[in-house]
Amino acid sequence: MRFGINLFPTVGPADKPADRYFADALRLAELAERSGLDHVKTVEHHATPYGGYSPDPVTLLAAVAARTSRIRLVTGAVIPAFTHPVALAGRLAMLDNISGGRLSVGFARAFLPDEFAAFGIPLDESRARFDESVAAIERLWTDEDVRHEGRFHTFGPLTVLPRPLQRPHPPVLVASARSPESCVAAGRAGRGLLLVPSINSVERVQEVLALYREEWRRAGHPGEGEVQLSYSCYLADDDAEALEQGRRYAERTNAVLADAVEPWVHTRSDQYPGYEGVVEKARNADFGRQLASHRVLVGDPARVLDTVHQIREWFGEVTVSAQVISGNPPLAESERTVTLLAEQVAPHVTSQTIHI
Predict the structure, then answer these.
(1) Model-level pTM?
(2) CATH number of the domain residue 297 falls in
(3) d(Cα 48, Cα 262) in Å, to the nearest integer?
(4) How do strand 72-78 and strand 103-107 relate by DSSP bridges?
(5) HEC profile for 196-240?
(6) pLDDT, position 177
């Protein structure tokens, strides 16, 4: 197993000024590299405290690249539906070069109705836009004189510049909430997976991982692919303190999430079956149940290590992305979480990373 940090902001101007948030995020990225962690990841969201301080992961990760030399940079994830594929392919290739070939690109469909409305894009076009754009971006990275005639975009022939440093292109991962079809498609295409186990049962995650890994092998790809799992994370030397504060930050995060998904009360799309239930799930999230079911990495190092062993038993060799800023803890507490994770948890379960 490998460990990195996921800089997922759940703040707005009333909670923390943006300049201070970015300064803190960059300090945590530098600490993650010094501590020997595997990656720094950040998300794309727009115009809401649920991730809205990160409307462009490339910008933040470029700043991380300038302050580090080894750690992987992961978009977790960019949303191709909201950006023209030529622009996004060039922007990501630029970051790959700036970072010396340390970029892994996660793509996501997005799921917040208000974001689609902001860009004037119908929710019902979500999957089709995702599939078309990701395939186009991979071709733009790999080939020259690319001509594309699709449902949503027509361009070319053109050769995107700069060319990616990693050849044929940076590792690609796709975010999947719960869809077996998405996981099968990722395995067949040789892409990695970004999953959030806290929103699914253990059995559901095991099911989609089995489908993914089987399709990966069937397609003839080496190994088993790369799977990154994101978990809320808060550590302290004192277990009682960690549980008390971890509960507080988890409740803040859930409240921000509940506000962000509120439009699903009156929104329906066949592209998102069952999403009308996410509002109730967010409102009724219970930290005690999350802790007991190993859906969060909260506690002293011994407790968190027990949870990590359980995750490994359930899901195999995966990469863990620790959300160390969600809920808006003070910087010193996030720094402590990163240090304890790197020094007292990761060394007991670390294995070699496979970057596809």
Answers:
(1) 0.95
(2) 3.20.20.30
(3) 12
(4) parallel
(5) CHHHCCHHHHHHHHHHHHHHHHHCCCCCCCCEEEEEEEEECCCHH
(6) 72
278 found inside a domain: yes
Q: Output phi, psi for 276, to 5 deg.
A: -60, -20
Q: Is 34 inside a domain boundary?
A: yes
- Please state the separation of Cα 62 from the chain's center in Å: 17
Per-residue confidence (pLDDT) for residue 28, from 0 to 100: 98
Token reading at 109:
């469909």
pLDDT of residue 351: 62
Domain count along the chain: 1
* Residue 326 contacts residue 198 (beta carbons within 8 Å): no
Which stretches of the chain score pLDDT less than 50?
352-356
Residue 20 counted as domain residue? yes
CA distance 51 to 33: 23
* 146, 139 Cβ separation under 8 angstroms: yes
φ and ψ of 230, to 5 deg: -100, 135
Enclosing domain of residue 208: 2-348
CA–CA gap between residue 42 and residue 318 (Å, rounded): 18
Verify cis geometry, omega within 30 degrees of 0, for the bond prior to 322.
no
Taking CA atoms, 167 is separated from 93, 102, 164, 170, 217, in Å, by: 11, 12, 7, 7, 22
Backbone CA torsion sign across 210, 211, 212, 216: positive
pLDDT of residue 355: 44
The answer to whether residue 266 sits within a structural domain is yes
